[in-house]
Structures are given as structure tokens and as C-alpha cells.
Amino acid sequence: MGASIWSTVLITVEEALKLVFPDANTTRQTLFLSDEQRARAEKVSGAEISSSLATRYVAHDEQGEILGWAYLDTHRVRTLPETLMIVLDPDGTVRRVEVVTFREPLEYMPREAWYEQYQGQELDDDLALKRDIRPVTGATLTARATTEAVRRILALHAIVSDGERR
Amino acid sequence: MRFAKSMRIGLILTIICTMCWIALPVSGASSDDEKLRELEQEVEDLKAAIEELRTLGLAEDRLTEIERRLEILAEEMEDLKVGEAAVKASRDQMVSGLGPAASKVYQEDHGVSLGGYGEALLEFFDDTRDDGSDSGEVDRFDLLRGVFYFGYKFSDHWVFNSEIEFEHASTSKGGSASVEFAYLDYLYRNGFNLRTGLVLIPMGWLNELHEPTVYLGAVRPRTENRIIPTTWRENGIGAYGAFGGFNYRTYIVNGLDASEFSANGLRGGRQKGAKAKAEDFAWVGRLDFTSVPGLTAGVAGYFGDSGQDLEDAGGNSIPVGTSILDLHVEYRYRGLELRGLWARAELDDVDRLNEALAYKGNQSVGEILVGGYLQAGYDVLAGRGKSALIPYVRWEQINTQQQVPDGWSANPANDEQLLTLGLAYQPIEQLIFKAEYQNIDNEAGTGVDQFNLSMGYIF
Questions:
Q1: CA nearest to B217, candidates B383, B339, B325
Q2: Are the C-beta atoms of residues B375 and B438 closer than 8 Å to each other?
Q3: Which end of chain A is more exposed for a tag (fewer CB within 10 A), N or C?
Q4: What is the mean pLDDT of residues B397-413?
Q5: Buried-state track B256-295, b at ≥16 Cβ within 10 A, e below 16
Q6: Which residues contact B46 (CB under 8 A, 6 or more apart)?
Q7: Phi then psi dihedrals of residue B156, to 5 deg
């Protein structure tokens, strides 16, 4: 998670993008999902998709080659929301997960090393708590919410990319 | 007010912390309402513009798509207005007029946070003790606790957290209503945050993490009842944070009250923040290694006097220096969870304390109390959806009179071994049902086995 500050706002989106894609050009894209895409993403990920709107940043190098994508996902942890930046490599696997805002008490926030477990993950049955992802004692709900968010974004990305190829 | 030698460093640390606190800046707050009104107006204007384009004969399907997108945007704004959790952080970047960072919305948003948890426990006791005599125990069905959590965020830096607890359902039947903790946090940065108020003593596993879904067992381990007297909370001030691979907490709190110690342990000595005697203070600190996912290992220590101006017959004060040390470790891998705890307390002036409290024979408070347990559980449904089914086993050993002063004797009934075999079921993560059998032995042969059923929830 890089050098983040433990207050509600841990890092701005801009800072997070700089951290993940230091020398890239990033372009913001708004995705407007169709009802069918939403339903499909929910089915594939097993996670709720609460909006037809999704935001992502696509990073290019100077030659225009895609370096990866950064999706923003906001969801409830216990009673309050957090916003994650979920960064995908060009091959569609997870590069890293960055916590942008965290409004629950910080005791519920796992440590940096814990988020590294998502690196290289793809959407399969092992991307689950007590499978590839180890739970955090005292932050179970955060661990659950984070895993769901990563599954949701992976599904969304696959479906949107699929739509773009057609 | 006296301070034991062992806690002077802690005291100095805490005074420095407090001075830093006073010197820290306070952040302000503002509102998004105006920006929202602007956005709403913008959407309305765009809708009108589309109608105008339609009359000019632009392709219908293209216009319909634009309208669909506008609707989505309008819905999102509605969410933002009602403050739903599912708002997209970056929406402010979609339309000009809002700040550049997604986080801004949150910086300016504060408020109340609510939650709660509770558990009910049904205990069936064996009719006979291990030695065959009548146990005399009556089976019990108790709404052990109903707890409500209230938090309030004043600003990004100042946060209040509290738990209000109702134990045993009704005060007319021996239950109690307590503030389990209530503290103010100043969130400064990753490595350093400040806390003051009624705080949870950061020792063992269950004192800070006691929600029913986060521990195996219908009944808490005895070590975390008699040596680390969960839920142990005292008034105090301190700091916490994370650095390198570690998490730490360091607090100065009012000390325990030795006049309520017994042969059974330290439980009665908790002052619970209620008009606490503040003649003696204590330092408590904890250090956990947390940087390997699945592993938590650490140490915690409590040092201070517990006399609280207690005097012997000659009018001399009895300080009752009290030190408690614990080592704790937890490891989780896939469905497996292993947990261990060892705790040892050492008390000074026990001979004079016993005299002052008019204890006789084997009623002596322990000079040394030792306890610990090893526990293993395996979720056989690991990773298959949201349910969990966890068989577990716990071996525990405790002696609250490991050592008593010369001239006093220990009651062998306080030297206990407990074997717990149980099964926990979680239909969803926030609910838990537990069933367990406890084989409880003690050196006096008077152990009474029991079977427990419990229900727990957290929201």
C-alpha cells in the first residue's frame, strides 16, 4: 500500500495512480453498464454490483501500450464505507490493492502485507477467504469486503473487456 | 498517588504523548450540499439539451444512449445525497465543478456509526463432581450480553468510540448496564495515534476482540477470566499505532484494586471506570508482529501497584505491586486456525494483603498465578460461500494459586485443567452458533463437567 497516512483519507486517487503507474499517462474512463452486464458480473463474481456506473483509469506508456487498469470500488465494511483502488495488469490479473479511504475505526484495517495476498490473483474459486486469502483476526468484515470487491472488479473487467473486443 | 518503578518509563512516554496531543492542529469541516445542487441543475440542463437535439433530428439510438447515461448519473447523485455507502468515490471527477480528489467527499463527511453484538448461553452442568459427590449446580440459560456500539466522527482526526453493554438481561435479576469502553481518539498518523477515556486493557486475545464471532468457544477460556479478567477496562490515556511489521499500544491507566482480589484470581480487582480509586496507576503495553498474513504473535505487559491506599492493622500502606505478562500467538492458513496464550501474574505484599482482607488458610490470594491454552479449529467449509463449520478443541491449564506466601496454603481446586471439544456453525459471517463439551478437572477432584450451547451475533 505504499506510504499511506492513517486517517480517513489515506491517499488521493491521483497519488495512488502516481504510485502504481509512476511514468504512465492515465486516462479516466466512466463505464456505463447495461443491466445484462451487471447481472452477468454479479453471477460470475458472487458479489453485489450496486451501480451501473464504474470508474477506471487506463494507463498507457509513451508508445500507447496499455500498462494496466485501476478501478475504484466503494463499499460498506461494517457500517461505514471504504474505497479501494484495485489495479489490474494487462493480462487481467490483480497487480495490487490500494486503500484510498477507510472510515471504520482503523483497528479494522489490515496491514499492508495482508493486501499483498491479492497480487497475481485471478477470478477463480481460490480467490476467497480461508482459501488463498487469509482472514485477519479482528478485521473479518474488512477482509470479506475486500475479497468481494476484488472479485467484483475482476468480473466487471472481464465482461467490459469482452464487450470491447466484440 | 504512587508509581511503581517499573512503570516510570511508561509514564514519561504518556506525558510526552499528552503534550504532543495538545500541540496538534484541529481540522475543519464543510458541506457538499451546494455542489450537489449545482450538479442536479447540470443534469436538468443536459436533459433539456437532449430534447432540443431530438427536435433537430439527431439519430434516435444515440440520443437514447445519452439519456440512459444521464439517468445513471442522476441516480448516482441521489445516492450521494442520501449518503449511501455504495457511492462511488470518484464521481466528483465526472463533472466539472468538484475537487480533483475522490477522497474529498469523505474528508468533509462525518457522522454517527452504530453497531452491536450479543450472545446467549445455555449451560448444562454435570450432576456429580469428578469425585462422585453431588455438584449442586443448576443449569442456566442466560442472555449473557447485549452490546451496542456507538461511534462519532468529529473530523478526520477526532473520533469517539464506545460500547454500552447490558449483561445478564435485567438489572432486576442481577444483571448490569455498563459502559464497556468510551474513548476519544486523535488519529495523527500510521505510527502514532492518541487515545483517552475508558479503554480496553490490551492484553491476551479476548479483552479487545471479544465479539462472539471472533473466538471459538461458547465460554471464554478461564485464563482470560481470572488472570486477564476480560472484559477488563480502566480509565486512562495512551498511544497506539503501527511501525515496521509491528502494532503497538501503550497506556497509563488507573491500577487494579487489590482489596477485591481473591484466591480465584484478579477478576474482582477491575475498577471498570466506575469512580475508580486513582491512588495507584499502572502502565500497560502490547507489541504484536503482524506483517505476515495469517500470523499474529506478540507480548503484553501490565505493571503497577494495586493497593489503592489499602492499609494494614498498623496503618502502613500495602502497595501490592502487580505485574502481568502474556505471550500470545495465532496462525491461520486456509481453514485452519491455531491460537495460543500464556499468562503469568506476580503480586507483592500478598501476606499483608491476606491479613488486611481477613482471609484464612487456603483463601490466600496467589503470589503467582499462571494459565494458558492451546486451541485449534478447522473450517471444513473453508472458501465455499459464506458459511463456516468449525470443529475445535482447546486444552487449558490454570492455577490461580501457583504460589502462596509462607504460612498459607493453596486450595487444590484452583489448579485446573480444562479440555473443550466443540463445533461452531456460521450460516453467515455475522452469526454464530456453538455447541461444546467441557471436561473440567482440578487437583481436588471437585471439577464439574459441562455442556454449553450458545448463539451470537454482530452487526
A1: B339
A2: no
A3: C
A4: 97
A5: bbbbebbbbbbbebbbbbeebbebbbbbbbbbbebbebbb
A6: B70
A7: -65, -20
Strands B281-289 and B140-153: unpaired
Q: Most A CBs within 10 Å: which of B240, B334, B459, as the mutation test of the A interface?
A: B334
**pTM value?**
0.81
Distance CA B110, CA A7 (A): 13
**Residue B126 above 60 pLDDT?**
yes
- With bands split at pLDDT 50, 70 and 90, how would you rate the model's confidence at B339? very high
A-B CB pairs within 8 A amount to 159
Q: Give residue for cell 481518539.
A: B185
Q: How far is B50 from chain A (nearest CA, A)?
A: 18
CA-to-CA separations, B82 to A102, A116, B36, B203, in angstroms, rounded:
19, 34, 11, 40
The DSSP element (H or E) to which B8 belongs, if any, is helix B8-23
Residue A14 with chain B: CB contacts under 8 Å: 100-101
- B164/B150 Cα distance (integer angstroms): 8
From the list A9, A28, A135, which residue is nearest B93 (CB)?
A28
Tell me if ipTM is over 0.90: no
Q: Which residues of B touch A5 (CB under 8 A)?
A: 189-190
Cis bond leading into B231, ω under 30°? yes
**Cα separations in angstroms, B324 against B1, B87, B222, B406:** 21, 47, 16, 22
Sheet holding A66-76, edge to edge: A25-32, A53-60, A66-76, A81-88, A94-102
Which distant-in-sequence residues (6+ apart) come within 8 Å of B37 by Cβ?
Answer: none
B384-387 contact pairs (CB < 8 A, 24+): B385/A46, B386/B426, B386/B427, B386/B428, B386/B429, B387/B425, B387/B426, B387/B427, B387/B428
The verdict on a CB contact (< 8 Å) between B72 and A52 is: yes
| HEC profile of B333-371 | ECCEEEEEEEEEEEECCHHHHHHHCCCCHHHCCCCEEEE
What letter would DSSP give residue A9?
A: B
pLDDT value, residue A52? 85
C-alpha distances out from residue B28 to B9, B109, B189, Å: 35, 11, 17
Contact A100 B89 (CB under 8 A): yes
